Amino acid sequence: MHLLRPQLVRVAWRQMLRYRLRSALIVGCAALGVAGAITVVNYASGGRVNILNKINQLGTNIVVVSAKQSRAVADRERTGAVVTTLIEADYRAIRDDILGNVRASATATSALRLKAGFLSTIAPVTGVEPDYFAMKSWELRDGRWFGPDELRRSARVALLGYKAAHELYEDRNPLGERLFINRVPFEVIGVMAERGPGLDASDEDGQVYVPLTAAMRRLLNVEHYNSILFELPDLANIEQAEIAITQLLRKRHRSSAARPDDFQVQSQRELINTQLAAADRLQFLVSWIGLSAIIVSGLGILAIAWIAVRDRTREIGTRRALGATANDVFFQFAFEACVLAIAGILIGVGGGWIATRFIAARADLAFVFDIGNALLALTVAFVLNLLFAGWPAMRAAKLDPIDALRHE
Questions:
Q1: Is 64 in a helix, a strand, or coil?
Q2: Residues near 358 by beta carbon (within 8 Å), at least 6 away in sequence
Q3: Of 67, 121, 163, 401, which is least surrounded by CB within 10 A?
Q4: Where are the domains of the chain?
Q5: 378-389 pLDDT, tens per residue?
Q6: Measured between alpha carbons, how far is residue 345 from residues 20, 211, 348, 374 in Å?
Q7: Residue 2, pLDDT above cutoff 50
Q8: What is the 3-state secondary structure (H, E, C) of 133-166?
Q9: For residue 17, how many other CB atoms are within 10 A of its CB?
Q10: At what angle do helices 326-363 and 269-311 cross, to 10 degrees?
């Protein structure tokens, strides 16, 4: 008796329910492959987003002029001695002769003794100008910024990094509290938002920030800067600006072959390019890992379906003897494998979303669920599983009915 398509569908459903373990294995293979592919790609995407956030914190269009940390003295290298030749006149010359009226901030930094209540510690204290925080895209968690008026008056006000605030005041609100820096009292006016470690390995959260003039006059008693940051409006002009600033400072500092530069001019360009290249390589590698996971899961489905055809050889012979055609047998086996694989793929998408959120929370990464990659993984898995399911179905359809009935 010839079996019609609706009857074949009902038979296939009964077989899937009858062999529950086999069906569960096919669903599991498909789900694991898709979930694994989606998770690893989203993990790499989350890492890339974190890198881009760190790059934004560093400032993509910032040029940094800094004093070198060592200098040759009498033909001997004096390591760790900070040169004192980067001064206000250099600052003005760079702005007047090269960059013009751009956002900028000089810095003066030193590790100083901090005392808040009964707690005392040593931490970096950095004197900056008000534009420093805007250039760094830094947000304020609580309190307020200091402004130009406080910079002009050398006001004794301080902004705390997130980590410094926690270490000094624990769970207390530090706003309005008195903080002694090298025994000089400062008022805490703000707490910075947490940033985490930067790409340049700096711990900005553990620092205290005060007006530049207050740091230089009240705390350090110096006339020189550790560094000067300039923000350029056009990223394309950074390289030319670096060259021009270098030439100007060499002229002003009278650098020569016998007297090497006592400064260095840098941008974040090389660091940014290195980090993005590493992120792109990681994305490429995990994409191949994801594709490999889908292929392995498809091979698992192929193996299970192949074994199913072998174990059901007598059933195939019986159906062929009752009038079922080779196309009917092919349709039944292909339908069973495809339905189970599709169910597994859909479960894998949901599992990938859950796994991505879990890993992002545990690894402290941005949660990224790339819909485009998920659809690509779903499509590739569907096509591969369709091919892998069709192969055993073709083998089943080509079985000779007499040989199938004799199979033991």
A1: strand
A2: none
A3: 121
A4: 5-55+274-406, 61-101+232-265, 103-231
A5: 788 878 777 776
A6: 18, 58, 5, 11
A7: no
A8: HHHCCCCEEEECCCCHHHHHCCCCEEEECHHHHH
A9: 9
A10: 150
Q: Amino acid identity of 261?
A: D
Q: Name the DSSP letter for residue 398.
A: T
Question: What are the structure tokens assigned to 149, written together?
Answer: 């008026």
Phi, psi at residue 128, to the nearest 5°?
Answer: -140, 170
85-134: pLDDT as tens digits: 888 999 999 988 888 888 899 999 999 999 998 888 999 999 999 999 98
Return d(Cα 47, Cα 52) in angstroms, integer: 9
Residue in the block written with tokens 């100007």: 248
**Of all helices (H) and strands (E), which one includes residue 105?**
strand 104-116
CA end-to-end span of the chain: 25
Grouping H, G, I as helix, E, B as strand and the rest as coil, residue 2 is coil
User: Does residue 50 register a pLDDT over 50?
Assistant: yes
Phi, psi of 362 (to 5 degrees): -75, -35
Q: How far is CA 135 from the centre of its chain?
A: 21
Given a contact cutoff of 8 angstroms between Cβ atoms, the answer to whether 224 and 183 are in contact is no
Give the HSE-up count for residue 187: Cα atoms under 13 Å, Cβ half-sphere. Answer: 11
Query: In the numeric block, which tokens belong to residue 234?
Result: 């056009």
